[in-house]
User: Fold these one by one.
Assistant:
Number 1:
Amino acid sequence: MTNATTGQPEERALLQAAFRSFDEAAQTLQQSYHALTARVEQMDVELAHSNEALRRQLCENEAMRVHLNGILESLSTGVLVVDERGGIARSNHAAEAILGATDATLRDRVASEVLTALGLSVCDRPQRFGQAVVSISQVPMRDASGGRSSHLILIQDVTRLYQLEEQLQRKDRLAAMGELIGRIAHEIRNPLGSVELFSSMLQRDLPKDSPAKRYAEQISQAVQSMDRLLANLLVYTRPARMARGWFLAEHVIGDSMKLAAHAITKVPVEVRVDLDQDIPLLWCHEGQLKQVIVNLVVNAVQAMPNGGLLTIRLHKEPSQTLGAAAVRLAVSDTGLGIDPEYRSRMFDPFFTMKDEGTGLGLAIVHSIVEAHHGRIDVESTIKQGSTFAIILPHPSTASASSECQALGGTESEFSEDEHVDRELALTEDWVHE
């Protein structure tokens, strides 16, 4: 009895100690659970912040990617992204337009082979590519560590810059030639007047059936032919002093076609005239512009010895071309085309590739267009044809007197002698360029 009684308190004490240990462990576990719960909640907050930061970073990266992609696609310079193996990884719209291919057809092809197939290469000098002139360069791309991972091939269309440089050189050259030609023409014209006078006197005094009278007539004809040539030279050297007015576009072009009819009827040429109805009037010197159109039409017909299509178009031109409102008058043919070797010289006086002609036609065209504060653009492909586009200022408003000139013509500032010069130039036989 005594042993059983004494054993119960000990067991109770052990049990109580076990319960206390269990309670302490439970409290410790509960504290750990609360700490873990707080930590999880903190981690949830931190994770949410991290996710939000990552989301913002992804949005910023996507916005930057879209922005950079927009910049790349907006560039007028063609860009080819080339990987370390030389393959094209990416191209922009400008490169596709210049090369005449899509990104899908260019991707993964060797860049050097693509350029070689098109007759191009990476070099410092400009290269002619069809109707365009391009400059191709290569720049390295560096990674974050500064090492070279790939490179870019930049293709820039420098056609307009090339044309401007060519026009500036031509303008300086023609100005010097014009000054010299003008002086020579005046010096020759003075003695020609004396020759014509004495020839007329001989024709008057010699008997009608005299052989000498026929010689005098031939001398007079030769002098008149020379005088027409000199008149053209003077038109070339003195076109800047002209009074312009508003003239009906349809009448100007129609009269020009009548003047050029003798050339058009010689070959089977189909003529098409496309006039923008929103451009009823042209701001020009009527006689001078007719001479320009006639020269260009005759040139176009002569470029199609076996016949073809002659097209005359009049349309609006973007204002940035001349820096103001402008119109484009284009004369196109489907003829032989112009050799690129001669394009820089085709507006030079006395330069011609024809058996007949003086080589003054295009020189006069260029001079008259310059005097109108316009410009002339030429596009030509061998055996496909040429287009000569005259771009002329087209003021949006006109004074009442100018509107009257559209109906009755314009009052010229020229002297009587200058009128005669221009009439001779307009009515001569149009056999020159």
Note: Residues 397-433 have pLDDT under 50 and may be disordered.
Number 2:
Amino acid sequence: MRWWRTESLEARHIRDEELEWFLRVLCASFGLDYSTARRFFYDDPYFEVNQRWGLWLHERAGRTLVSVATAIPLQILLNGRAVACYGIAGVATLPEYRRRGFANHLLQQMLHALYAERAPLAILQAFNHDFYRKLGWETVSVIAHARLEPKQLPRYETVPLRRVTPADAPAVKAFYERHYLPRTGSLVRDERRWEYLFWNLPNLWLCEFAGQLEGYIFYDFLDSGWTLRVRELLWSTERARRALLGWLAANEESVRHVEFQMSLEQLASLRLMGWHLPPSEPTQPMYSVQIVPNLMARPIHAHALLQALLEGVPAPKGFQSFNLRVRDSVLSENSTAVGFVAQNGRVRLTNGLPDAPTLSVAPTVLAMIAFGTLSVPELRARRMLSVPDTLVDALDALFPEQSPCLTPIDFF
């Protein structure tokens, strides 16, 4: 229910002299200690580049900052290409002003401003997927959760791990680049991203053999310290896998659970049996794996997004020119048709083509297409996408299914 007039609201960037107000709204909304949050707020490696937004309510007594949000400039990998995006975080409204549509209004104004920048995409980790879906975001990835007791992990006898030092940073970065193939949904780790990870996640332990790095683990704690949550676990050899799992198992005296959050494929590669005692019931599981919603995404400037994804890629067999138009009720300027043609065997984007077939999609469907959440034939079978038979194979080649996942270390 709205209890305000649109002309009484002002949505805009937060000015430098308003940063303390912004921070106080964050603390009041999320129940944070102000003095603790203040240090982290100003020390954040993204502090200088973040866009901080606020919604001011003009009342008789003056004006009040009622809602805030942050847009973080990032890059995300989609089908092997780095695509610029904004991570939307810290969306909050003062408790006494909630359920009056203020956050909704603020996000809509942000979308219009980001469109003017030609920002291709906005991503977020949602507290309520239905709320953001109404604004054009869609759930584009899932993540596997598994929680085991330390005694359910094998206690391999192997070399001990050691805590990282600042001097280890170059070796960790090089190890990641050499042994981990980032998947769709991973954030691109430039220098600022790595700086953020080392700043935000100080719990990093290394696995070395004869002075050579063969694996590492980033982790943090949940449940007042009783759950060790694995944020990233990478290894290049079998002995490193055993050393890392053995180290986790050795935490039996200090934590009650070890929680793994990663793609289902990565979880399977750990080969966790969950064995502790011989099973007594054939229907009793060793442990459970939950597949839960992960990342939401929203196309902002559809032309810029499609250009970043497809400009110059090889034209698939049977390709024919077509248009794609987004039905965007929230961001009407995003509804211009984009044309796709083949030139010298490569896909080129242009303005709408008058004689070509036109695909009309909601921004939620375009988000799933861009991330490869579902294949084009599956979207069609689910009646989420209407595609002529002559375009199905070419579109399936241009937008292949990807199994995207934003792993916990990439959370923002």
Note: The chain is about 30% helix and 30% strand.
Number 3:
Amino acid sequence: MRVKPFKGIRPPKELVEQVESRPYDVLESEEARAEAGDNEKSLYHIIKPEIDFPVGTSEYDPRVYEQAAKNFQKFQDKGWLVQDEKEQYYIYAQTMNEKTQYGLVVGAWVEDYMAGRIKKHELTRRDKEEDRMKHVRVNNANIEPVFFAYPDNAVLDALLKRYASTTPEYDFIAPIDGFRHQFWVVSDEADIQLITEEFAKMPTMYIADGHHRSAAAALVGAEKAKLNPHHTGTEEYNYFMAVCFQASQLTVLDYNRVVKDLNGMTPEQFLGALKKNFEVKNITVPEDNVQCSMFNVQCYKPKHLHNFSLYLEGQWYSLTAKPGTYDDTDPIGVLDVDISSRLILDELLGIKDLRSSQRIDFVGGLRGLKELKRRVDSGEMKMALALYPVSMQQIMDIADSGKIMPPKATWFEPKLRSGLVIHKLV
């Protein structure tokens, strides 16, 4: 892997908590408008600039992209974002539930992405790629990082631990997620060389989160190379900003499903149909349940791979896939997202395309089982299906095999905060 340090653009220490934000794609426009409030220094004015227009303005309006560039320049003019004087790496740590993961912020090489050495496990949609490409083009910068995983590396781990024992440049608790975020600057030349050399030994890295941002950043870099008659390969646009974590440190949470109807079946008929491929158990024993809210509401959480929980008509059920319904030797066929898609959503409920069907929605991350229960109890949804989380090893195995995971298979938490550092393409 080829990586390089870069002259990051970032907020002064005393402003970081006013500037930083959630990523653009985890909240709607009106949520961003509410979170930004009257804070003119919020990064939402750059990554969700539709909030500067009347309610209802499309985030894809050409004026919105132009506003992003104006605001980015304004932030620099006012000193809310300041470019570092020398090329350096950065370390970004996140702490969730007393577990900390340490990421190295690097310039990743466009050619590594284009050649498939930076591996993906999800399909991307061209319209979403184009949206992010417009944002990169108009700002001439990677405003938000992408999220990579790399095979565990003892040398880099030792370096990260050494920096972790020092005072960070930034250190704050984000108000929305309640997680701790810390940030160090790696300016020592020997450490910079060490990081570059260790990444150079790696044959591959993996996109954990941010497939559209990765594609957009790499495609804009390649586009700039083609348009430059004096292209040498050393230009800054040949690199895009990524935060790279050791794979073993990452937490992949369950990504669950809620469905609006039973495809014409009664609950009894649906439960009966499930028994063809699943062992179905009505959960009534207290020790089988977990507390899933502060109000001591009991829910059933999947216990292991190929075990699912179903919530229907106020009742939790355990579903365990029968032997022969999946292929342990197939990196895709063994996945619970594939088993549930094939044998429940498609075969029984007639939901063929998870990307386009209006009958299904997805609940990921920290919302938990109580959110599944709430959406069914409210009458909005008819049933909920909870899955055992995919492992990071499964994700890497699939990426290595060149295959693509089913949609909505992974939910990484905590999410990267945006605005801690920005990478200019010039």
Note: The first strand starts at residue 3 and ends at 4.
Number 4:
Amino acid sequence: MSDSKKEISLGKRVFRILSGFEIAVVCLSLLFVLTFFGTIEQKWFGLWATIHKYFDIESIYVLPSRGDGKLIFFPLPGAYWVIVVLGINMFLGAIIRARKGWKKFGVLLSHCAILFMLIAGAVSSVTKEEGHMRVLQGEQSDYAQKLFKHDIEIFQYDENGAREQPVIVRSKHIKTLGPKDKLNATFEKFDFTLQVDHFLPVAELALDSPSSPAPEGVEVVDGFFLAETEKNIQQEEANTPGCYVTVKDKSGGPIQRLVLWAGNPYPVSFTHEGKRYGVTYLMEVWPMPFMVELHKTIGEDHPGTSIPRWFQSNITKIDGKQREDYKIIMNEPARHGGYTLYQAGYTKAAEGETPSSTFAVVKNPSDRWPEYALYASTFGLLIHFITMLFRFTGGSRPKKLKTTESSVS
């Protein structure tokens, strides 16, 4: 039997399907549709919620919908997984299966750059850290706070009423709790334990009063209770969690029952064996390896509104003895040591108050990768176009003349 009639193995068939041009067309079409409906949907649900709905790694599929909950299109695969399939298709088809050689170098380089850009997005979604840093004009800050991570901090007050070094129960342990789950935390520094229970991911701290009593079955602690609320899909940072905490002695006996809410900036205190302690439930503190000093914050609103049209911060970044001045504008961030500071907001100062700037702090190892990929892709396409132009102007004409000469002879 001749080679042309031999059956193609299953492995080769799978390879041809996965590396086929058809899959690339389907993936690119899906990404266009997902981006289109995501752009429409952010009108009702906001940018942050829409990005996480369409592009998050946990979104296996999405249901494009309107603000009233009605679907505007049938279910679609999540964009993250479409990009994964497109990346596999590009690697197999545009790199492994593609023809090699110097004449194809430009196209191959462009394909590698596009694949690198897709990898940059995957790395960013897994490793990126985000937080907010608020600095008053004329003051300094060396830490940010992670918006969607809230830690419980327990600390002792010294004789002068100052806080000593706290111990921390991390957000990643608290967020896994269900309404009926309990988390028991022990500390080497203290001779008591902490039991966290009745965790609510979105809650408000309410006062138990005759006009607004606590619902039946809801625990009240020192006149306050946690009321579960609906999630704010327009502003994710407005969703504040809450929980109840029991402080226990070594034998397991209760010392104090506390109610903690992440929207309360003040510590809840208790006393044990003559010592005073404080407990807070706040956004996770994210120390920076440098200091930011804010000199000036300025901005303008759209006429007749309170929506910022433009704002800017003049800062000095202090890293040890090194000082560098930056101007951070809305679309012009400052970068240093793997950290990027974006201008996220500013507050105008009323009379007698101090203006401030809020910076979005992002640590992303793949922050500049898409930029490098774009340069490489442009360079590859430029090489390819020059090569094709050279072949057209210098390579095809002599062959045509040779043919003419031979026909005359």
Note: The longest strand covers residues 275-301.
